[in-house]
Design a protein that fits this description.
395 residues; Rossmann fold; globular; single chain; 15 helices; six-stranded parallel beta sheet
Length: 395
């Protein structure tokens, strides 16, 4: 009989966050070994029990999020401001509700079918707190925690009356209570102040997703199509330099398609250029079709060492040429191993960046890397290696 595994994570259904998608991909490797279900945050303010890709998902919400989703105008803005104020007042910001609600749902699931293994995924960090609550009530259950990005990050708003040291101590105390703490390799290497003295930690590399080509082109083949899909953040993932380069290209056959959110003011400023087209988010299914149709994948690096841009391994798995625009001093070391990639630092002159970009496009259009070569370069990130690490930690 399979053991019962429950995974607590952030957004998963119907549009997963990067960490939610990461959790799902790991779970997909474990279906032969565990009966699984997810507890996740609701995207629409409703609490639902649904099936997502064959796995039971219980979505949770709070009254504040439900009201913010349902209301409009002044009332909606007021509720949003209330949530913003909570971020500055409480250690868990406006997500305290999630640790409590997730714990209650774990207890309900456990009464129906005893849980053998619990895996909590940060972010959000309250997923880990819910796991600690449940572990204290049920010591026989194995608690595993996976942290993609540290909670005590330099860009996090520090609550009034707290210090950055308090955030570190808080994360260390919660993380140390897991029976097994999975960490991204970046977190282990850069955050010894949090995880250095935790004995039960182990590195869990990012999974190189299995790539399936989707038929049905989306683009006119007379042009060269570049795609960015993801979010922008003014302070840590700012697209302005990348947009300046695209707006300055001499080859007007090169088109940038932005499937993004965030930094709307910058996007609106540059969208007037004919080769920059902003289109908003699309579904995962359409995104796969988009990836199968484009010529080049565009990334914007993070200005925080702890955070590896979540698209890196997904882009690599697509086996297409990749161009990353990075803040000065924040090169993407993972991409350095990928033979069809170009990285441009934002202190490069626009004129030189345009030349580097156009030369790369001219040389690399239509090139791919074989699956065999990809798996050899990124052997640590293959399905077999990741599955082995997960099973050793969960069992």
């Amino acid at each position: 009989m399979k053991q019962h595994l429950v995974i607590v994570c952030g957004l998963l259904y119907p549009n997963p966050s990067p960490t939610g998608l990461c959790a799902y991909r790991y779970a997909s490797l474990l279906s032969d070994h565990y009966d699984m279900e997810f507890i996740a945050m609701s995207e629409n303010g409703k609490e639902e029990d649904v099936y997502y890709e064959g796995i039971s998902v219980h979505t949770l919400s709070s009254k504040r999020l439900f009201l913010e989703y349902k209301t409009k105008g002044i009332i909606q803005r007021f509720i949003h401001l209330l949530g913003s104020a909570q971020i500055k007042l409480f250690m868990n910001g406006n997500l305290d509700w999630f640790s409590t609600s997730a714990y209650k749902r774990l207890e309900a699931i456990h009464r129906q079918k005893p849980i053998d293994v619990l895996l909590t995924v940060c972010s959000p960090f309250p997923a880990h707190i819910a796991g600690v609550f449940f572990k204290k009530a049920h010591p026989e259950v194995k608690l595993c925690a996976y942290t993609v990005d540290p909670f005590a990050a330099s860009d996090r708003i520090i609550p009034i009356g707290k210090s950055f040291k308090d955030l570190i101590e808080f994360e260390r105390e919660v993380s140390a209570q897991a029976d097994c703490l999975f960490l991204s390799e970046e977190a282990i290497q850069s955050r010894s102040d949090i995880y250095g003295d935790i004995q039960n930690k182990r590195a869990l590399p990012y999974l190189l997703p299995k790539r399936v080509e989707v038929e049905g082109g989306m683009f006119d083949k007379e042009y060269i199509h570049c795609v960015y899909a993801g979010s922008f953040y003014k302070d840590i993932r700012n697209p302005e330099y990348m947009l300046k380069v695209f707006s300055s290209l001499r080859n007007k056959r090169i088109i940038l398609h932005l499937y993004s959110a965030g930094c709307a003011d910058l996007i609106n400023k540059y969208e007037g250029y004919g080769n920059i087209q902003a289109k908003g988010y699309i579904s995962q299914g359409e995104l796969q079709r988009l990836y199968s149709s484009c010529d080049f994948l565009i990334g914007v690096g993070n200005a925080i060492n702890d955070f590896l841009p979540s698209k890196t391994y997904e882009y690599i798995s697509l086996r297409r040429p990749i161009i990353f625009f990075n803040p000065k001093g924040f090169g993407n070391k993972v991409l350095e191993q990928y033979p069809h990639s170009l990285q441009i630092a934002d202190d490069t002159s626009i004129e030189k960046a345009v030349t580097l970009f156009e030369d790369f496009v001219s040389n690399e259009k239509g090139r791919t890397i074989s699956v065999e070569d990809l798996n050899e370069i990124y052997a640590c990130n293959t399905t077999s290696n990741i599955k082995s690490i997960l099973l050793k930690g969960l069992n």
